[in-house]
Amino acid sequence: MNRRSFVKVSGASFGSIMFASSIAEFLTSCTKTTILNNTVGGTVQLAIVNETSFLTPLNIPVTVGSNATLNPQSTTATIGGNSLQVLGYQPNGILGPTIRINKGDSVNIKVQNSLSEPTNIHWHGLEIPVNMDGHPSNVINQSGSFNYQYSVSQRASLSWYHPHPDGYTASQVFKGLAGIFLINDSEEAALNLPSSENEIPLVIQDKRFSSTGIVYSPSMMDNMNGYMGDKILVNGVISPFKEVSTRYYRLRILNGSNSRIYNLAFSNNIDFTIIGNDGGLLKYPITVKSILLAPGERLDVLVNFAGATIGTEIFLQSNMFNTAGSMQGNQSFNILKFVVTKSVTDTFSVPTKLSDITTIAVSSASKTRNFTITSMQMQSGMMGQNGGGHQINGKVYDKNRIDEYVAANTTEIWTIDNSQGMEPHPMHIHALHFQVLDRTGGRNQLIASEYGWKDTVLVMPGEKVRVIVPFSSLTGTYVFHCHNLEHEDNGMMLQFQVS
Ligand code: C2O
Ligand code: CU
Ligand code: CU
Hints:
Helices cover 10% and strands 38% of the residues. By secondary structure, the protein is mostly beta strands. The strands form seven sheets. A seven-stranded mixed beta sheet has the order 14-13-12-16-21-18-19, with no helix packed on it. It has a six-stranded mixed beta sheet with strand order 1-15-23-22-17-20, with no helix packed on it. The longest helix is centred in the N-terminal third of the chain and has 14 residues, at 3-16. The protein starts with a helix and ends with a strand. The relative contact order is 0.14. Mean pLDDT is 90; it is low at 1-45 and 380-386. Bound molecules: CU-O-CU linkage and copper (II) ion (2 copies). The site of one copper (II) ion has 4 residues, from strand 8.
C-alpha cells in the first residue's frame, strides 16, 4: 500500500474511535471526506497488511557470545529484493546479532555510535545496574562509544536489546535496530528442549517502505495509535518461508514491532505449547490454539510438525481479535510459511514440568501503587504531536521528575488501570520481572503466556491489571512505560527511583 492510501485508512480508523459527543469537535480539525469515504462496510482496517509470496528463505541472525561490538549506523539491506536504506548494528542488514550467554557470564559489549544522532542500548529483560540499563537520558552521542559491562545472574530466558534514547527510540527501532539476547542455564538444559537448528528465533516486525528505504514518518494520528507497517517481516525478511522436518521445534518469538499486536495461530490449527515468556520458562506447559503477543513481549513455544505429509505448507498467521479497540485486530494475515520437507524420527516429548517458580504471596506486598492511563485524544486538537497523547496518572515523561520512590528489596503491587482507555497499552518495567496477579474488565482473565515471570504486560481497553513486583537491590532511577513506541516517545513513561 502506498503512503497516500495508508493515511486515508488510518484517518478512517481514527474517526471510528470517537465518542459521539466528540465527532463534531473532530470534524472541525479534520476533513469530513477523509473519514466518511474510507470506512468500508462498517469495518475499519488500519495499516492493511499486504502479504507477498513467501518465496524468500527465513534468515537466522548470526550468534555471538558475551564479548561483541555493535556499530549502529545508517546502511543498506536487501529486503524484498531491493537494496534499501536502513539502520543496522553492522553494515548491510537490519537487526543485530543474537547474543547468547550462560547464566553467570560477564558481558562486555562495545557500542560505537556511527549514527548522526544519539543512541544507546536498553537490555530489555535484563536485571542489571542502572548505569548499564540504557535509560532514555543516558545516551551515546554521535561518534561516541560506550562499553556495556555487567554480569548476568538471572535465569534462562529470551531478552532483547534495542535503542532507547529519549525521542528517538521509535524511529531507530523501526528503521532496524534491535536484536535478541538469550540466556541459557542448567535448569533449561536438563529439559533437552529442541536445540541448534531446531530452536528458531523469530523476530516479528511490521514495516513501511518507500522505494528507497524503511520509512518512519508518523502523523499525529500515528502518534496516537502507534505506527504500523503494511509489510510483516520475520528476522528482517518480508513474508519468509522455512523448511522443517516432521518433528518438534522450539520457537523463540519476539514481537519487535513498534505498536502492532499479533494474535498468533497456525493455519492448520495445530497447537502452540507455550513453555515460556518474557522471564523464562513457565512452571508447566500450556497448550493453546492462538496467543496474543504485544510489542516487547516474548514467547517460548513448542510446535510439532510430526504427522504432516511431505510438502505440507503451514502458515504462522495472525488472526483477527476484537479486544483491543478499533485500531488493531481487524485483519487476519500470514506471517511465515513452514514447508514440511523431510521425514524424521523424533523422540522428544514435552516435559510435564518445566521449572520451579515460587508464587509471590500478595501478603508480602508492602505497598500498592495505582497507575491510571488517560488519553488526550479528542479533548483538544493537540493529539499528542508534541507529547502527551497518553498519560500515566495525568503525567507525561519528564526526565527531571521522579514519579515514584521505591524501597529496595521490597515487594509492591502495581495496578495498571486502562478502564477509561480506548487503546491497548503493553506496559513495561525496566530491570526486573513481575508476576501478573489478575485482570479485571475487558478479557477478565490471564492468558497462557501470563503465568511465570513477565516484564511487559498488555492492558487492553477497559482492563485493570495487577502485577506483583519484587524490587531487588538494584538501586537508581529506572523507567516504566508503554511499549507502544510511539506512545513511549510521546511521553507515556514515568521514572521510579529505587533506593
Ligand atoms: Cu524494550 Cu524501555 O524498553
Ligand atoms: Cu526494558
Ligand atoms: Cu500505550
